[in-house]
């Protein structure tokens, strides 16, 4: 059983459009509404794979009520923490070549009492959980150290925790030793404060996150595949994808695949890549079922291609730590 924590959930409306033209009336070829937020997506992928999952999240207003209904329809147990502010609604515009434009609302501002209620809900639901997956940005009102406190409380409760966040929140949480962190290439570059031009650069950045406290680093490199760096070594995996329809939620599905396969080792990495590859071939933020997966297409190896240039080299500027943001 996997418990997910989404401090800033959303209702996500996705439009498939022929092209994005500023100032023009754009007619959508299709649209859909899904429960959103990174942790919510992980729960949706876990449920689609046939596993039990509980989504812990703050809920407020009519949008929050609709979000809870949609999650229940997906077979997800909902542990909603009532908050005064309304849950946010986001919009995604997807073009035929897979280009994604997102407009994310800020979401509610949580009070100290609501923050504590959310932490307590996670503690209560962590009993018997195989993993706690904490994902996404923090809403207004929660300091960067909030995830660090959640990691510390989860470990005191005897549970394992996977963290998918970035910036000051990631750096603060590393000091508490999360069992797994799942950055993408941009988040890796931001965390270490230097560019990533090759797969080897990403490996070194992941190793540095381990020295900062992470037990394991599951790094998504987009079209260049994924890395797993842990105490046993470094693993690399990739899968060819014929057509990218939408990359919304692909990283979240990857984390779900990793955790449902045990959350450690080469087999879990292969599952992560299979889930991510399946997701980008589905519309909107649809999560893959076992029938959508193609495990045979995934190639895993300990022979990491360190010299291979990244198809999308990354530089995001100085790390938050260098600015004193952590």
UniProtKB/TrEMBL annotation:
Q: What class of enzyme is it?
A: transferase
Q: What is its EC number?
A: 2.7.1.56
NCBIfam families to which the protein is assigned, alphabetical? 1-PFK, pfkB
What InterPro entries does the record tag this protein with? 1-PFruKinase, PfkB_dom, Ribokinase-like, Tagatose/fructose_Pkinase
Native source organism of the sequence: Streptomyces humicola
Molecular function via GO: 1-phosphofructokinase activity
Name of this protein: 1-phosphofructokinase
Keywords for the protein's UniProt record, in alphabetical order: ATP-binding, Kinase, Nucleotide-binding, Transferase
Family designation: Belongs to the carbohydrate kinase PfkB family.
Domain Carbohydrate kinase PfkB: residue ranges: 22-290
Which CDD domains does the record match to this protein?
FruK_PfkB_like
